[in-house]
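Reopening this ticket.

The earlier resolution said the output was attached, but the attachment link was broken on my side. Pasting everything inline this time so it's all in one place.
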Amino acid sequence: MIRTRVIPVLLLQNHQLVKTTQFKNPKYIGDCINALKIFNEKGADELAVLDINASIKKTPDFKFIEQLVGECFMPLAYGGGIKTIEQAQQLFSIGIEKIVLGASAHETPTLVTALANQFGSQSVVISVDVKKDWLGRAHVHIQNGKKNTGVDPLVYAKRMEELGAGELIIQSIDRDGVGKGYDLELIEHVAPDLKIPIVALGGAGNITDFAKAKQAGASAVAAGSLFVFKGPHKAVLISYPTPKELKNLNA
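Inline output:
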């Protein structure tokens, strides 16, 4: 039986639901609020919404996020454009349960500690986006994968834990949207030396990949394409595994 959270990750671009492949070529999927309502009906454990526009040059769209919160009956995490304590405070005040930091955690590490001290570590999640070079060396990337920090993911993860983060999303850029399974080597590289939970993201092709990620050391699993596409031609269909399907997995 699998005993872990299973988290759909929804990407936003200009308020629309999109899906990328290796962080490139966003494909329009549909209306985010409609997708959120379907995940409500299917009983998703929690939901993460990441605004890929806000993460680069904008700030959170609080009015739109408030609409999402109003329709969401599960814990909701939000990431994208969060650069200040005041922005985080506003997100929490409208009902966001966790905030997800990407580039701002690298560029302003003191923000991680300040947020953890004020709101609690359990509310602060760091997205650790990892890409391998042609020699197979893994490095953390920021700004939607465009900038290589040159930092090993384990070194970076341990630093975020020390700063006060309560959870990490370990995401493989190379496997994003590909559906060939999580990067188990990456999970095994990072997980054993951390005390805080890690969420595996990037590459899930079917629900058996969840069990493999957990066996590699992930505390929870997340996916995007798996929950919004169906079949080899990637027809848009919002889905989520049933409790029975998850119960039958060995992990």
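Reporter confirms the inline version is readable. Residues 32-42 form the longest helix (11 residues). The chain has one domain: 5-247.
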